[in-house]
Specification:
Oligomer: single chain
Protein name: Response regulator transcription factor
Organism: Streptomyces decoyicus
Pfam families: GerE, Response_reg
Shape: globular
Radius of gyration: 17 Å
Keywords: DNA-binding, Phosphoprotein, Transcription, Transcription regulation
Strand content: 5-15%
Structural class: alpha/beta
Order of helices and strands: EHEHEHEHEHEHHHHH
InterPro entries: CheY-like_superfamily (IPR011006), NreC/VraR/RcsB-like_REC (IPR058245), Sig_transdc_resp-reg_C-effctor (IPR016032), Sig_transdc_resp-reg_receiver (IPR001789), Tscrpt_reg_LuxR_C (IPR000792), WalR-like (IPR039420)
């Protein structure tokens, strides 16, 4: 996998390069500031990008803006963004452009090498990867919306879907059958009012409904 990294912290940037190359991936380019990200992505057209949300010069949302701009220029470009803290607005905005091939992780997750690499590979394959802590905080903020109709188990299933987990993995983590997971997901779709005719995108729509509180 060819990857472009956007990260202003030199120690973390070099750590990411070492981690990815050690795992057999190629780092096509690195960017240390927001304005450097988009040109690097357009020049190298990588299989995936790993970008810090806040980068110079303003340390606000340069990385996120670069990710959104890159996905407009290169539709479907897999992007995994990293953030120091849970920032709901950024997660919603990233996924609002289409939840295929996007991820949002807290930087602490990079230290958990297997989890980080698994998330990157899921994003590169066109899936989603949301940090469990992001999902938990988003869930606790929801009040008086369609998600209130979900049972505790259905909320667990939706949370794992939001992390980008497939049915088999959800079944394994919850220690239930694949059939039970499919039933719970069907109930989630029905309660969130997702159209049955849109079967190819219902999982994405469910994640978006989850993040936006229905």
């Amino acid at each position: 996998m060819r990857v472009v990294i956007g990260e202003d912290n030199a120690l973390l940037r070099e750590g990411l390069v070492l981690l990815l190359t050690s795992a057999g991936h190629e780092v096509a380019a690195v960017a240390a500031s927001g304005p450097e990200v988009l040109p690097a992505l357009l020049a190298h057209r990588p299989d995936a990008a790993v970008l810090d949300v806040r980068m110079p010069p303003s340390f606000r949302d340069e990385g996120l803006r670069a990710a959104l701009a890159a996905r407009r220029e290169i539709p479907g470009l897999p992007v995994l963004v990293l953030s120091q803290y849970v920032e709901e607005t950024y997660a919603v905005e990233l996924l609002g452009g289409g939840a295929s091939g996007v991820g949002y992780l807290l930087k602490d997750r990079v230290g958990r090498v297997d989890e980080f690499l698994d998330a990157l590979e899921r994003v590169a394959a066109g899936g989603t990867a949301l940090d469990p802590e992001v999902v938990t905080e988003l869930l606790t903020r929801r009040r008086n919306d369609p998600l209130d109709a979900l049972t505790p188990r259905e909320r667990e299933v939706l949370a794992l879907m939001a992390q980008g987990r497939d049915n088999a993995t959800i079944a394994q983590l919850l220690v239930v059958s694949d059939r039970a997971v499919s039933k719970h997901i069907g109930n989630v779709f029905a309660k969130l009012g997702l159209p049955a005719s849109d079967s190819g995108h219902r999982r994405v729509l469910a994640v978006l409904a989850y993040l936006n509180g229905g």
